[in-house]
Amino acid sequence: MHVWGIARAFGGHVVLRVEDHDRTRCRPEYEAALLDDLEWLGFVPDEGQIAQFRHGATPLRQSDNGAAYGDALVRLDAAQRVYACTCSRRDVLAITGPTGPGEEAVYPGTCRVARKPGDSTRARRVQLEDGEVRFDDLALGAQRQAPSHDCGDVLLRDRFGHWTYQCAVVVDDVNQDIDVVIRGEDLLSSTGRQIVLARMLGRVVPPLYLHHPLIRHADGRKLSKAANDTSLRELRAAGADAASLIGEAAKRCGLRHAPDRLAASDVARLFV
Fold it and tell me: Would you state the pLDDT for residue 216?
């Protein structure tokens, strides 16, 4: 809702991108359900038409875009910033100790020091440039992050050969000229490392970022299918209509005081 509303209100255009980089979790039926939901709600992208995804390969689907991520890896490797990493998450936690809720384990650079041979694993990390990153979030204001200290070296490809979220979204944002990124506030901590990685790939001016609140349960938990939260498909089957659901979402996001019916074409007026 935020993406379409802000883009329409301020003259931008929406790029639909399917981020299915994790092939162990993503399935064709999940993508089909996503496309069906967007079409039913009335949210029409400007680039990456729904029919484009339904009829074949597209660079806007990350599982079809591996060559671009491979090219980025080669460029970073040429700058001598990439190394093989055999550490699992369990290995990292054994060194750093357990993390608390919402905390991230900082990779300590074990394999960077050990210099593991390239054929020991398909996993690759990149050593980030040092320094502090400052940016103004359009919703949350001034931010300061130190990625090399906060998260350590970033995993680009895992041991199964799958490209990671951090790698794929940065390369896509660079190659697709994304100049505004709108996403949930749970991804705020990724921003600094993504700005640094993009800079290492040649992007001088980073995108603008807006991190919006998530729709949560009353106790603060995120909505999750794993927690048996109801999907849009289930709500549709139960007789819900698109305008009612968009209105309810607008209320829960704090954009309206009451859950009045709202068409997708009218979402832009919530942001002006």
Answer: 74
